[in-house]
Amino acid sequence: MRQTAAAETTAETTPETTAAPAVSGSDPALRSRWLEVNLPRVEEQLALDEALLEEAHEGRLAVPVARTWMASEPTVVVGSSSRIDDEVDRDACRRLGARIVRRPSGGLTVVLGPGCVMWSVVTPLTGQTPAIERIHASMLDPLAAALVEAGRPVVRRGSSDLAMTTVDGDRKVSGNAVRVRRGGVLYHGTLLDHFDLDLVGRVLRHPPREPAYRGGRGHDSFLANLGLGRTLLEAAVRDAFAASDTLDSWPGERVAALVQERYARPEWTERLG
User: What is the H or E stretch that residue 186 is in?
Assistant: First the structure.
């Protein structure tokens, strides 16, 4: 049974070089649909991303789906292959009340909470799987352009970051991750807007690997807030992926099953301590 949307303000396949997934507004048939869902828990939001990817993989998702959401409390989200103790200060998380959960995509750990807008795009694929760099470009280039249009000097940096140019150098405002299945791509990440940046340095260790543009900087001198507000950021995501039409249903039963079987289970989160 599919749910009606409620209003609210590690690659699995071997990549092959071909065209990136089409998510631009050039072809009305390929324009994204916008999904608004009110889910209170981060685990449910992560499960929704995976559920939409499964639907794309199975041929049930005909067009790309874009959405944004925001965690209501500080939450540490580790990548699917991250070792928690390499990237996270567990004691600090306990002191500050920041829960630790695990997402379905790769990449390093991020910290969510009020003031950090999350964005997701799930794109169905046909034919060969695009090269990972093509996927990064097809997602980040239009979003960077939309943020520039909104008034911020945003550029792509590293493999999957967006950074804002400042007098102190480029500072990261968005970290992103991808999961690829034969029939679809999940691309999701952060947009730091009015987030407590000090919290990141308190709960995360220096990452075990970093892009060259970071230059060894600590979290406090590497991150920045966009300061646009959620309404403008959501509009930028919608513009970037031509998501003018809305999607009125979502796979609720599949989300519930994924939460029960995976995201709410300590065995899932702690499988790589």
Answer: strand 184-192
